[in-house]
Restriction endonuclease (Flavobacterium anhuiense), 332 residues
Amino acid sequence: MEFKARTLNQIAKMICGDIKDNQISYFTYRSSFYLTEFFGDADTEFVHDGSTRPKWVAEVLSEILKEPSNSHDMPSEAFCRVIQVLMDQSNSFNEDKKRLNALEELNNALFRENFEAFYGEDKKCYIKHIPSQKILKPSASPHRPFSTAETKRREILIKYLDECSEDNLIEEILLPLFRQLGFYKISVAGHKDKSLEYGKDIWMKFILPTQHWLYFGIQVKKGKLDAAGMTKGSNANISEIHNQVLMMLGHEIFDPEIGKKVLVDHAFIVAGGEITKSAKNWLGGKLDTSKRSQILFMDRDDILNQFIVNNLPLPTSSLPPESFIEPDDLPF
């Protein structure tokens, strides 16, 4: 990815902390030694060579933007780390800890590139791609240990999943999550006209590094999926899901961006509750070898872990007021 030279020069001056035309600076001044330290804090290995500081920093930023990215329309993770070091709230200068003036100055540069910086609930600065609303964040394993604050957010989300409807699960949890994970053209079939779904609650597509597209259909169930003889309460029977998955894989969807119909490459089975091992084994036994590789599972734990590590905002609907934790109350 490339940014305009003007944008790079503006961000470089913020990193250097140079004073502009006797105006108040909201960024700490950094000499040669501290510029090297700055980029070291961002987990890069750039060492200032003694040349003009803003020019050197702009060249470094250009190199960082050329590094591989998980998405063709997002900068590299190293660029995200640079922004987080630059906007660390503990480094506030000539303003309060929220750094609203520094944030505004940074966004004046980033808006030119269709990006916006903002502070998350963890008080770290992130970058959002305005057209797609995707958020650039350093990758994190969904299986890592959670902090105390993340554990509290996870508990709130568990309570929400216990109480929300299937439509809420789709609209307020899955859509933001899949959008953040890099999927495109996420379309919801809805529940008003079941005849139009063909076994799909959501369809979406994902671009490969080779610029080829893969299409995904998603069948969503709010509760637990098991291999019991019949559906009971909020628990869904896997045999019913089996029929819906076969419809999903057998019916074409129309992609308006290319103007033609395509088949779904993979089917996601997403449950707001547990998908039991017996349910997965039952479905695996019913599908032939070619179909088996097309089925992906995602249960409650997967949803919770991915939602938390990607630091997505918690849904606000259907939650009692006492369940909310204000960001300032979190123990960072």
About this structure: DSSP finds eleven helices and twelve strands in the chain. The chain has a mean pLDDT of 82.
